[in-house]
Amino acid sequence: MAAFATEDMKRAPAPRPSSADAPKRTPLIALAEAMAHQSPVAAYSPVVLAGIVRFVDFVVICLSGLAVYFFYVAPSGEPLAPYAMALPILAAISLVVFQALEINHVGAFRTPLYQGFRLSGGLAFVLLGALAMIFFLKLEGVYSRVWMLGWYGLSVVGLIAERCVLSVVVRRMTRAGRLDRRTVVIGGGPLAEQLLDELSRQENTDLRIYGVFDDRADARSPDVVGGYPKLGTVDDLVEFARHTRIDLAIFAMPITAETRLLEMLRKLWVLPIDIRLAAHTSKLRFRPRSYSYIGDVPVHDVFDKPIADWDVVMKSVFDRVIGALCLVLLSPVLLAVAIAIKLDSRGPVFFRQKRYGFNNELIEVFKFRSMYTEQTDATAVKLVTRDDPRVTRVGRFIRKTSIDELPQLINVVFRGDLSLVGPRPHAVHAKAADRQYDEVVDGYFARHSVRPGITGWAQVNGWRGETDTPEKLQHRVEHDLFYIENWSILFDLYILAITPFALVKAENAY
Question: What is residue 173's three-state secondary structure?
Fold first, then answer.
């Protein structure tokens, strides 16, 4: 269903607004405006948190076995090797059992004593299985029974102690809003009211419901639905999500309202949020695996936020580590370019420019100054063209080779608002054929659903530099969206590896 919706929305015809048609930003109603400007704290991924807990569980189980070995078994002279081989296997099986018992989620972390009984029961199951294997494989003389019982007891104590500490941490994170899943419902009337009622009765979902958005303005969509306020239309939701963090949007609409759904989804797919279609009232039943669940409420997955959970962690670590390494290795080049700029023309070495970053947030990127100081264009009202008189002699070389972009490693390593690889962060007032980029290409802002990068798939495929025609911008956006939909660390490595070769044959950078 997600693929069907995506392709339909990319093909869906839409009006091409001009700058004279309407204001760029839709004014929000007062309540939505006030809520949007409540700066949310950074959220932690429950998936990542659960993964960290599994790792700690694994370590606790292994250390418990080692502690019993060195305290009881080692003095008798028994070798460490059999126990060292068994411990990781026992720990891994224990994690599988814990997963089957569903005790590795945020809700379970809040009830350590109750979950402690389930932990001890799961570990007892592993112990009995291990004893059975020792018996059938005739390994009684290899492993001490006292060690097995001691491992079990110390592991249970260690795991319960860990979960007690974890519960305190999770409760503090919850009070601080670090685990909130900020949610809005789309659609009004009885369907939305029933959905909101069911969501409100769910336990341990960490949903923080803000309100309702609906395009209808008649009696079918009242100002208050299920105790939650109506905050505006779907267009207002796009603007609302640009002001504040929204994690999840749930459609409370019948699946038969295909035309209306597609029209709304065409507006929302550019946002970096999860989009779900509620299935709690649908008479059309699919196989159970066709649904995902929010608590006990079945939903259809329409879109997933790109590069989320562990992918965010991996990409961030990759950016910081490789970016710092590049800064060190390229420091002689950076120093030489800085000296050349100072000798070539008066003014600062660096040039700072406002650009759109993740979710349309304004960021300030660093570049080497390539223009005469009095002619720099901080907002990129006029793009640089061939033989542009504003560009210095050194500037022509560093722009052609993209060396002027290297200071953006500062953004990657120290500020974290850029990535090594991603869609390029276009300047605020950059235009193609005298029109703003989002007026030229439908879905342009979908490329802002991930952090922008120093280099990207569009750049290594020749779509860098001047965007003087809608066709050039269209190709650039298509490549950016392909990158977002197919991201992986290996893809990033490939793009970084071929970037130097792509720069050599670049033709559009002046």
Answer: helix
- Cα 360 from chain centre: 15
| Cβ-based neighbours of 243, under 8 Å, separated by 6 or more | 28, 33, 36, 37
Instruction: Spell out the domains of the chain, with CATH numbers in brackets.
Output: 2-7+24-40+180-303 (3.40.50.20), 46-175 (no CATH), 310-504 (no CATH)
CA nearest 94: which of 58, 41, 137? 58
Res. 263: pLDDT tops 80: yes
Question: How confident is the prediction for the chain on average, in pLDDT?
Answer: 83
The total number of residues shown for the chain amounts to 510
pLDDT digits (tens, 9 = 90+) for 39-61: 677 788 999 999 999 999 999 99
Neighbours of 316 (CB within 10 A): 15
Question: What is each CA distance from 376 to 21, 343, 379, in whole angstroms?
Answer: 30, 18, 9
Written as six digits, the tokens of 508 are 């559009």
Which H or E run includes 375? Answer: none
Model confidence pTM above 0.85: no
Question: Around Cβ 432, how many Cβ atoms within 10 Å?
Answer: 22
